[in-house]
UniProtKB/TrEMBL annotation:
It comes from Halopseudomonas yangmingensis. The lineage of its organism: Bacteria, Pseudomonadati, Pseudomonadota, Gammaproteobacteria, Pseudomonadales. Belongs to the class-III pyridoxal-phosphate-dependent aminotransferase family. GO terms for biological process: biotin biosynthetic process; gamma-aminobutyric acid metabolic process. This is Putrescine aminotransferase. GO terms for molecular function: adenosylmethionine-8-amino-7-oxononanoate transaminase activity; pyridoxal phosphate binding. Keywords: Aminotransferase, Pyridoxal phosphate, Transferase. InterPro entries: Aminotrans_3, Aminotrans_3_PPA_site, PyrdxlP-dep_Trfase, PyrdxlP-dep_Trfase_major, PyrdxlP-dep_Trfase_small.
């Protein structure tokens, strides 16, 4: 077969439809429409095979934190491939990139977390979490503590354990999930589910579902509570201010582990290195991935608190768990260089002091649009709720169709946003400029106008 550059868009779409099974894709409609082929990228922009320039308001899939086209990351990979392209960390071996990366991540993490287990992805990180949490309680002599409490509409990946820990009901239906020992409580999604309660009242109510579930199951059966600081794939759901303090109060009362899934919030997205720092949480385990390498290579991990690591190490013997690519030297070298860029260029600091306030104040104006019921955001995350009636929060009929309409209009007009039902979400690279934020907001407004016209409102 000829190299990709010489193939026309049409031909690529045909081959794609014939051979490539995509993740999270309805292939019937993909075959009818033809995939959009993305060929290259630089900074915050993508170019498709038709030459269209598109502002990537999602940083790929929440991951390209330092933006596209950073040659330092390519050079780090190239050098490491020549030096040592692969070796494992099984059987009492290690290599410099993984060791240095573990030490650097430990230095950035909250003070009580000093060890890292590496994986190839966020899903593998959450599989690791499940096994570590259960192993921990076995070693503590409390083998009854097996159940993990998660939340409806959480996202923790797509492996069997990841999808089970997640609370995506359509995913559960397709795989006879969740596996036993994982239960789900309500999510702190005030706009969608708050009913007549005010946001703070609702935040307390949602947090207290955790306590009710612990009491229902018995503390001696519950191993951990897992949550994203801010739900990402669920629709950028930002808990009311009352939520996390109440969760902390409850966790203080019961002896269960806290797993904070930092796959999206980690590495600067909130303006802190980790979402746990933004919300002042004390996690026992933090799954990470995505922004860890800015997506340039696949890599994930679990940052482990001393309390858990010490137990596994002192009393555990061998932990029969790991992946061929755990701590992969090339991925680790790229992650190290990515951390250097984030640090030396003051990117996380700049998000906190300049870019997040800029993004949040500018997207807030979209709330004046007649289709928009609420705009919310933290750091470089944002969500726009599309509604028929601003006062009653009433949606348009045919759930999801308005979100899809707006999303498609945005892409056609040079902006990637994602639609979760009738919520538009964004998560741009952390290096987007204020002028590019203007471009994002102006394009979004224009597309909301076009959508309103089509909907006849
Ligand atoms: C993306 C994501 C995952 C899964 O990561 P993969 O690398 O896709 O396996 C897990 N948790 C959260 C919060 C995510 O956003």
């Amino acid at each position: 077969m000829k190299s990709a550059e010489t193939l026309s868009t049409r031909r690529l779409q045909e081959l794609d439809a014939a051979h490539y099974l995509h993740p999270f894709t309805d292939h019937k409609s993909l075959g009818e429409r033809g995939a959009r082929i993305i060929e290259r990228a630089d900074g915050v922009y993508l170019w498709d095979s038709e030459g269209n320039r598109i502002l990537d308001g999602m940083a790929g899939l929440w991951c390209v934190n330092v933006g596209y086209g950073r040659s330092e990351l390519a050079e780090a990979a190239y050098k490491q491939m020549l030096e040592l392209p692969y070796y494992n960390s099984f059987f009492q071996c290690a290599h410099p990139p993984a060791v240095k990366l573990a030490a650097e991540i430990a230095a950035l993490a909250p003070a009580h977390m000093n060890r890292v287990f590496f994986t190839g992805s966020g899903s593998e990180a959450n599989d690791t979490v499940l096994r570590m949490v259960r192993r921990y309680w076995d070693l503590k002599g409390q083998p009854g503590k097996k159940t993990i409490i998660s939340r409806i509409n959480a996202y923790h990946g797509s492996t069997v354990a990841g999808a089970s820990l997640g609370g995506m009901l359509p995913m559960h239906e397709q795989g006879d999930l969740p596996i036993p020992g994982i239960v789900h409580i309500a999510q702190p999604y005030w706009y969608g589910e708050g009913g007549d309660m005010d946001p703070e009242e609702f935040g307390l109510w949602a947090a207290r579902q955790l306590e009710a579930k612990i009491i229902e199951l018995g503390e001696d059966q519950v191993a951990a509570f897992i949550a994203e600081p801010i739900q990402g794939a669920g629709g950028v759901i930002i808990p009311p201010a009352s939520y996390w303090p109440e969760i902390k109060r409850i966790l203080g009362k019961y002896d269960i582990l806290l797993v904070v899934d930092e796959v999206i919030c980690g590495f600067g997205r909130t303006g802190e290195w980790f979402g746990s720092q933004y919300y002042d949480l004390q996690p026992d385990l933090m799954p990470i991935a995505k922004g860890m390498t800015s997506g340039y290579l696949p890599m994930g991990g679990v940052i482990v608190a001393d309390r858990v690591a010490d137990t596994l190490i002192e009393h555990g013997g061998e932990f029969f768990h790991g992946y061929t690519y755990s701590g992969h030297p090339v991925a680790a070298a790229v992650a190290l260089e990515n951390l250097r860029i984030l640090r030396d260029e003051g990117i996380v600091e700049r998000v906190r002091t300049e870019l997040a306030p800029c993004l949040q104040s500018k997207i807030a104006r979209l709330a004046e649009h007649r289709l928009v019921g609420e705009v919310r955001g933290v750091g470089m995350l944002g969500a726009i709720e599309l509604v028929r009636n601003k006062q009653t929060r009433e949606r348009f009929p045919d759930k999801g169709s308005t979100g899809t309409l707006c999303r498609d209009l945005c892409v056609a007009n040079g902006l990637v946003m994602r639609a979760v039902g009738d919520t538009l979400i964004m998560s741009p690279p952390l290096v987007i400029s204020p002028a590019q934020i203007d471009e994002l907001v102006d394009t979004a407004w224009k597309c909301l106008d076009l959508a309103a016209l089509k909907l006849g409102v």
